[in-house]
Design goal:
Length: 104
């Protein structure tokens, strides 16, 4: 049997890179965040979601919108929107965050 430690409900994973905040103590492991995230930031773990690649978050807000327990918070609308506007202005077909966007 796996020995998976309990997580306090008020524990916050604040990655310090972007506005994404994850509270694993609230997670019910429904899998929605890993399903909807376009950048693979979350993956499903044994008992709760795992914030595996926070640096890849483009702050689209889909995880927060779909999380039924409020375990994810993010200030949406600052990352990928900039990439889309820049792509539209430059005619680029590459709509991704990167060095020429928000640096992520
Ligand atoms: S805000 Fe978007 S990119 Fe960031 S973790 Fe949530 S779904 Fe993924
Ligand atoms: S959507 Fe929320 S409750 Fe569901 S796995 Fe992700 S963090 Fe946990």
């Amino acid at each position: 049997m796996l020995d998976i430690p309990m997580v306090a409900a008020d524990k916050v994973d604040d990655n310090g890179i972007n506005t994404l905040r994850y509270m694993p103590g609230r997670c019910i492991n429904c899998g929605r965040c890993s399903e909807v995230c376009p950048h693979g930031v979350f993956r499903q773990g044994e008992k709760r979601a795992v914030l595996s690649q926070p640096e890849r978050c483009m702050e689209c807000g889909a995880c927060q919108l779909n999380c039924p327990t409020g375990a994810v918070q993010v200030e949406s609308g600052v990352g990928c929107a900039a990439a889309m506007i820049k792509a539209a202005l430059t005619g680029s077909k590459e709509v991704t965050c990167g060095p020429d966007c928000c640096g992520r």
